[in-house]
């Protein structure tokens, strides 16, 4: 657990934080009492929350390895998460050490940790962004100085799209991202779903209100609409543990209890 005597400047330790809650669920140490309290309340509602976090992380790893296998050598990792084992830059370093990785986030805690972790790391950089407006990343001058949008890009929107409250606006943002990327680019995404238990999704949303990072769980059809500008590769939109598992029957015993749908889309 984090030492509460130290934290990045201007960070509120009394307000729970989505990235630090996720860190706690993954067994990390960069979290505080307020985060742990919400995480334990979440586990009371969804006992599988730890499994869901691990399956989410594992999906991202498999998806990034798939993109590297498709020849992608530029990655933008966008979303509220603290550096953890198996993050995008680690996976990329293993399978495509010549690739460039850009870590983008709007959370000061996440940014501080990312900058400390990646200091001196070649072919990796950190920029600030607003995950509620994911399409703005392609026009950021700092991003454009590092990423060549004339070549394929792997864009990771991990737990980002459910923070955009309007489904139509989320779809438009993804469509703008599609248009800004070159052919052969891919988007990797995860999204909290209201299927199969909308009442649990509503309770989780209530628990996360104090984090100032309120999200909107959506039905499968709504998520499909949001990413419709991309061509989903097989197996399409599915629960995280069911997307190309490393071994048959691997992953969560009850995939639907991860409450997270995921996929990889290609820009043709």
Structure report:
There is one protein chain. By secondary structure, the chain is α/β, with parallel strands linked by helices. It is built from nine helices and eight strands. It has helices at 18-25, 33-45, 49-69, 88-95, 108-118, 141-146, 167-180, 198-208, 220-226; strands at residues 74-78, 100-105, 124-128, 154-157, 186-192, 231-232, 238-239, 260-266. Strands 1, 2, 3, 4, 5, 6, 7 and 8 form an eight-stranded mixed beta sheet that branches. Strand 2 (100-105), helix 5 (108-118) and strand 3 form a beta-alpha-beta unit. The termini are far apart. The mean pLDDT is 87.
How would you summarize what this structure contains?
It comes from Actinomadura madurae. With 268 residues, the chain is α/β, with parallel strands linked by helices. It is 37% helix and 14% strand.
């Amino acid at each position: 657990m984090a030492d509460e005597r130290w934290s990045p400047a201007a960070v509120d330790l009394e307000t729970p934080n989505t990235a630090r809650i996720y860190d706690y669920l993954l067994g990390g140490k960069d979290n505080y009492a307020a985060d742990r309290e919400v995480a334990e309340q979440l586990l009371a509602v969804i006992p599988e929350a730890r499994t869901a976090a691990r399956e989410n992380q594992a999906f991202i790893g498999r998806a990034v390895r798939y993109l590297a296998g498709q020849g992608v050598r530029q990655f933008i990792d966008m979303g509220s998460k603290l550096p953890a084992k198996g993050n995008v830059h680690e996976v990329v370093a293993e399978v495509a050490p010549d690739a460039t990785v850009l870590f983008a986030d709007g959370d000061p805690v996440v940014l501080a940790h990312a900058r400390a972790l990646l200091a001196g790391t070649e072919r990796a950089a950190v920029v600030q962004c607003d995950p509620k407006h994911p399409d703005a990343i392609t026009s950021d001058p700092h991003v454009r100085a590092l990423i060549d949008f004339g070549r394929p890009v792997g864009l990771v929107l991990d737990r980002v799209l459910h923070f955009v409250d309007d489904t139509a606006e989320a779809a438009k943002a993804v469509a703008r991202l599609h248009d800004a990327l070159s052919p052969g680019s891919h988007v990797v995404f995860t999204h909290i779903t209201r299927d199969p238990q909308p009442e649990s999704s509503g309770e989780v949303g209530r628990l996360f209100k104090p984090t100032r990072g309120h999200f909107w769980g959506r039905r499968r059809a709504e998520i499909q609409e949001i990413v419709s500008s991309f061509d989903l590769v097989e197996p399409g939109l599915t629960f995280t543990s069911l997307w190309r598992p490393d071994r048959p029957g691997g992953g969560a015993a009850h995939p639907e209890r991860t409450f997270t749908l995921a996929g990889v889309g290609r820009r043709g």
